[in-house]
Design goal:
Length: 465
């Protein structure tokens, strides 16, 4: 790492600079989230044991409400029961009454990954749709093609008893025509929705009752996304001021997010889980000291042998590290899938599909895959490198002489959040190969107010999720 990227000139592994991983195009930047299985994964109760978690008052899935008490349409209540959604989660109990209330309101909702945020806004939308009015009534934007496709699939699943509700997914590759979109619910990525509204003008927003941003914090934090969404928000507010804005995310730490909310939804009602309900408190996190890259590889291989887990995601700093680590782990006989910014979109989708089907037990990725993956069988996350945030010049953000200050807390939560889905216990191993990496991890620990146990390589037998 150069002194420009490391102004304190502290040894930090022997990785390449972060720009060695080519960013994805803006409709593909964040995590792949198209999990292709026979059933939609985050509705698969047999895998995630949701029913059991919903009876635990300490779980974010627990609620004293019922779907009937939320006054949803009978068809939606019946469908939730068919999917073994016994009770709404805390975010669903808090949000759905606000989203379906009269008069309608703007809402900002924050809750940990895996607690049903997607079902929250979809159930509210399906409750409010007028099937006799054939025009777009709800618009949902997600940061990736895969996430947009999954939202559409989940919505169609929830609407199984409402066959007259129609969906349209506007993403890269959509075969656009000049014919007006008449589907009730439109889901898409920022660029595709912008094309539909501004360029092709085949998406009329005059009938929208809601505009939803999923992963809002991340969308507002990316300059390209932010500019596009600002243009859409401005246009929608001018065209149909009655459209309500619903912003959903696991975090709202980006300053631009707060600025955008104050600008376009200053009176929004805010719903957030309490700090002690965040997913990091439900995941066992450990620090493993590793003096070199080879020691980190050995630590990972030993962990695989000692820890009983289903599938594992490993996050690396660069694509070069991803490929090197894949090659080395494959030598041990394990099948490994990878994700990074220079891969073809079809190769990424194929790797996610095969990992979701357990054809591969290990997925190694750069931060392009840090968000949105919803694979319930993941119980172990390994941070081969700690997440680091950079300013516009790709230099670490340093705060003062006592704190490095460029640990990327948001990315850490989204990385580790891949374990412990739906309130299940999970485990994270943070590998520290030098004093800087070690300090960055300790700063993450302090920021979240959590306790990471430091263990020696080879002491895995006694750790559990």
């Amino acid at each position: 790492m150069s002194t420009e990227l490391n102004p304190k000139n502290v040894e930090f592994s022997n990785q390449n600079a972060p720009e060695s991983d080519t960013p994805l195009r803006q409709d593909e930047i964040s995590a792949l989230n198209k999990i292709i299985n026979s059933e939609i994964t985050h509705m698969n109760v047999s895998q995630t044991n949701v029913a059991e978690r919903q009876t635990d008052p300490t779980s974010p899935l627990w609620s004293s409400e019922t779907f009937e008490s939320l006054k949803l349409k009978p068809e939606l209540v019946k469908r939730c029961a068919a999917l073994d959604f016994i009770t709404p989660s805390k975010i669903q109990s808090a949000c759905i009454p606000l989203l379906i209330r009269t008069p309608p309101v703007d809402v900002v909702a924050q809750a940990q990954n895996g607690t049903g945020k997607t079902a929250t806004f979809l159930l509210a939308i399906l409750h409010k749709i007028d099937v006799n009015f054939h025009a777009p009534q709800a618009l949902i934007i997600a940061p990736t093609v895969e996430l947009a496709n999954q939202i559409c699939e989940v919505g169609q699943n929830l609407a199984a008893l409402l066959p007259n509700v129609t969906f349209f997914c506007a993403t890269k590759g959509t075969n656009y025509t000049h014919a007006p979109i008449s589907s009730h619910v439109v889901v898409g990525t920022p660029g595709s929705i912008d094309n539909s509204i501004i360029k092709f003008r085949n998406l009329d927003v005059k009938s929208l009752f809601c505009f939803v941003l999923d992963e809002a914090d991340y969308i507002f934090g990316q300059p390209g996304f932010r500019d596009t969404v600002m243009r859409l928000l401005h246009y929608i507010r001018q065209t149909n001021f009655n459209t309500k804005l619903w912003f959903f995310s696991a975090t709202f730490d980006d300053p631009y997010a707060d600025q955008m909310i104050k600008t376009y939804a200053p009176d929004a009602l805010r719903i957030a889980t309490r700090r002690n309900e965040h997913i990091l408190n439900r995941i066992k996190q450990y620090i493993v000291r590793c003096p070199t890259r080879d020691h980190k590889l050995k630590a990972i291989v030993r962990a695989f042998s000692a820890i009983s887990v289903t599938s594992t995601i490993i996050f690396c700093y660069t694509r070069a590290s991803v490929e090197w680590l894949r090659n080395e782990i494959q030598k041990t006989g394990r099948k490994v899938a990878i994700l990074h910014g220079n891969m073809d979109i079809h190769d990424r989708a194929d790797n996610v599909r095969r990992f979701a089907k357990s054809e591969y037990k290990v997925l190694i990725a750069t931060s392009v895959a840090a968000r949105g993956l919803d694979i319930p069988q993941v119980s172990l996350v390994i941070n081969y490198d700690p997440p680091v945030r950079y300013n516009e010049n790709q230099a670490p953000v340093v705060q003062d002489d006592t704190q490095l200050g460029y640990s990327d807390y948001d990315t850490y939560m989204h990385r580790v959040g891949r374990a412990g889905r739906f309130g299940k216990p999970g485990m994270a191993l943070n590998l520290a190969d030098g004093p800087m990496a070690y300090q960055l991890i300790r700063e993450i620990e302090k920021y979240f107010g959590i306790k990471m146990e430091e263990i020696q390589d080879g002491e895995y037998e006694n750790i559990t999720a």
